[in-house]
Amino acid sequence: MTDSDNLSDAPSVPAGSPVPSGSPVPSPETAPSPGALSPVDAVPAKGVVIGLDIGGTKTRGVRFENGEPVADEIVGSSNVQNVSREEAAAHVAELFAKIGRGPVAHVYAGAGGIDTNEDAAALAALIKPHVPGARITVVHDSRLLLAAGGASSGVAVIAGTGSAAWGRNDLGEEARAGGWGYLLGDEGSGYWLGREAVRHSLRRMNQALEPDELTRALLESCSIDDPNQLIALFHSPSTGRRFWAQQARLVVEAADTGHRISQELIDQAGKDLADMAAQVLRQLRLDGPVILGSGLGMNVVRLQDSFRNHLAAAGVTDVRVLDKEPVFGVLRLVGEQS
């Protein structure tokens, strides 16, 4: 799952609360090249802080020394809901080997699917061997997004491999919407767009229509020559959530060349994401800001326009697109804990 409001029966711990290392803890992506370090407008943190942003397709890690980013690396996903525990552990080890080990004061990790104490504890257990003695905090990745947008209250909307909305008001109340995982939701996400491209192609096949621009691009990307082969490929263990999320780019490209169905799909994605944001705003009695981030959200202008337009129709005008990666919100969050 990407997000959920359900908690385990374990004793409640406020989401995002810091915990000592090893203790129980609370409940198609494009990124700047590693090494292209972003400015950090946050409270300087003393010592070494490692920020992790763990998505469905990649793990990004930034090493901060006395508030300055000095290393920035990307490896494969370390989210055990998207890859095996062994693969996740290997990616965590690879990342820490790249960004440096040594004494670390604090590791602050944001990841999709952090819905229970058990989810967070599982991720903390993968991190702990690489940072002995460090304080480890594990939160849902939408919290990083809001902080990177420079806001302490408001709503963060993730539009990447998956989708979710999370918000917090000045009273510290929190709310979420969507983010139920690709089997139950993830509307407006890269996976959703990729799946809808497949469904569109299969509908045309059933209607005895020739492959159109989107279908031809999809067949080429999948290295097949008949839409009927999409059925087996979609259910094949050789493909998965990440593979189909990567096909979202085909919908974006077709929309930009005037393909009507692709344009409608992106508009629907923007509407679904806006609906999630509006729901959280209502629950928290907020007017904004709403901050859109992650791979699709930060890079697809057509999606951004749809998102803004649908929120404007609901009376929400303070809408921002994140201009730096969510992991750069870590220092703000560490500062809030100090």
> What is the rounded Rg?
20 Å
Give the tally of β-strands.
11
Overall mean pLDDT score?
84
CATH topology of the largest domain: Nucleotidyltransferase, domain 5
Distance between the termini: 31 Å
- Number of discrete helical segments: 12
Name of the CATH class of the largest domain: Alpha Beta
> Could you state the order of secondary-structure elements as H and E?
EEEEHEHEHEEEHHHHHHEHHEH
* Main sheet attributes: strand count, strand direction, barrel closure: 6 strands, mixed
For this structure, what is the CATH homologous superfamily of the largest domain? Answer: ATPase, nucleotide binding domain
Identify the CATH architecture of the largest domain: 2-Layer Sandwich
Could you list the spans in which at least 5 consecutive residues all have pLDDT below 50?
A: 1-45
Strand-helix topology:
Elements: E1 19-20, E2 48-54, E3 58-65, E4 68-76, H1 85-99, E5 106-111, H2 117-127, E6 135-140, H3 141-148, E7 154-159, E8 163-168, E9 174-177, H4 190-206, H5 213-222, H6 229-235, H7 241-246, H8 248-256, H9 260-284, E10 290-293, H10 294-299, H11 301-313, E11 319-321, H12 330-337
Parallel strand pairs: 2-5, 5-6, 7-10, 10-11
Antiparallel strand pairs: 1-6, 2-3, 3-4, 7-8, 8-9
Helix pairs in contact: 4-8, 4-9, 8-9, 9-11
